[in-house]
Design brief:
Layout lengths: L2 H123 L1
Length: 126
């Protein structure tokens, strides 16, 4: 019976050893998982900062392009107004020329009718 307590102690010691080994193995697995997750978190953080930087660059580029478009729109609007004024000036000039042309044609017609009237009188008299 003397062996019994020492045997119990060995069994307990062995169980404790196994429990400790299982605990260490679980902790080792957890540590590995934590390391891989930390690596993933670090990669995600780097990726996020890269995307954030790219986003800021694109935002600046978009603003620059929007400013360029606005400036070109202003130039286009100024050119359109200038052409509109030119068109109006040309229209007025055309109307004046049409009036002069009509007046010249009317004078020419009057001269022709006066000449033809004088010619008919001369022919009648001769």
């Amino acid at each position: 019976m003397v062996n019994r307590p020492s045997r119990d102690w060995r069994k307990r010691s062995h169980r404790l050893q196994e429990s400790r080994d299982e605990f260490k193995a679980r902790n080792r697995n957890k540590a590995e998982k934590i390391k891989t997750l930390e690596g993933k978190a670090l990669d995600l953080e780097r990726s996020r900062s890269e995307w954030k930087q790219k986003c800021e660059e694109k935002t600046r580029e978009i603003k620059r392009l929007a400013d360029e478009v606005a400036a070109k729109d202003e130039l286009i609007e100024a050119e359109r107004k200038s052409r509109q004024q030119e068109t109006e000036a040309h229209s007025e000039e055309l109307e004046q020329l049409k009036k002069k042309w009509q007046m010249l044609q009317q004078r020419s017609l009057e001269k022709k009718t006066t000449k033809s009237l004088a010619d008919t009188i001369r022919q009648f008299l001769s």
